[in-house]
Amino acid sequence: MGIWDDTDKRAKESAGSGIFVKLEDDGDKIVGAFLGDPFPQELFWNQGKNKYEPYTEAHAKAKEKMTLRVSLNVLVTLENGEAQKTPAVKILEMNATTFRSVNKCRKRYGFDRTYFEIERNGKKKDPNTTYTVLPDDPIDAEELKKLKELKLHDLEAKSRGGSETSDPQPADDYDSKQTAGDDPISKPDAQALVDVLRTVPRENLDEFLAKFGVSKVKELKQRDLKEAQSFLGIGKKEEESGAEGESDPFED
Questions:
Q1: How many of the other CB atoms lie within 10 Å of CB of 230?
Q2: This prediction's pTM
Q3: Which one of 2.60.40, 2.60.120, 2.40.50, 1.10.540 gives the CATH number of domain 18-177?
Q4: Nearest to residue 32, comparing CAs of 83, 71, 69?
């Protein structure tokens, strides 16, 4: 390999070595362990300057839209199907919608017990982009000990008010717009999903709820209905395993 090809290869390898997680296109994903506490920022998207700015009293008085961005440290162990030879702690910046999915996973599975997969669903600059957060492999006691010893990034100092992607515009910010897709699904659609979910094991039900970031089927958004129907259509219809002491996601 010549010096030009060798240098080009090394340049490609170093391109992903920044401290920010980049999920740039449909299907891009990482697996990692969330570390530490979140850092929330109230920001304003300056269309003229094509960048985020801190949200100030002046913005509030002008009734400008505030956008919440949240940063979290994450040890990235796998990126787009490739295991990282030297896992690194990076910063994942997300909008409020994605953060709520992350927080639901935290409450259900625990950051000290589980690695998580984060996947982008949507091409670059697609205004309907979403991010799926699902539990991955468990964290054992030895791994947990090492995780607690890792040095974390100073989120307040490092956070740039950006997004999970390299897209310059806040295309994935669902809080900045209200569309029909944000409405919950109809009762008949919810009942149809419930009828299928009642026939599958509890672990399959948990996966479904985590995938769509809801605790009850009736909370599913219209924009996710087709994907939810497709997800259940290819799933195995097995007997429900059940789980005592857990809240019923089917109840009203």
A1: 10
A2: 0.58
A3: 2.40.50
A4: 83
Q: Are 34 and 76 in contact (CB under 8 A)?
A: no
**One digit per residue, pLDDT tens: the chain, 252 residues?**
576 666 655 555 444 457 888 888 899 999 999 999 999 999 888 877 777 888 889 888 888 888 889 999 999 998 877 777 778 899 999 888 999 999 999 999 999 999 999 999 988 878 788 899 999 999 999 999 999 999 999 988 877 554 444 443 443 443 333 344 567 888 888 888 888 888 888 888 888 888 887 888 888 888 788 888 888 884 444 334 444 444 454 454
Task: Give me the phi and psi of 143, to 5 degrees please.
Answer: -65, -40
In order of 27, 93, 224, the CA distances from 122 in angstroms are 8, 17, 13
Q: Where in the chain is the domain with CATH 2.40.50?
A: 18-177
Contact 232, 196 (CB under 8 A): yes
| Of 220, 127, 107, residue with least CA distance to 169 | 127
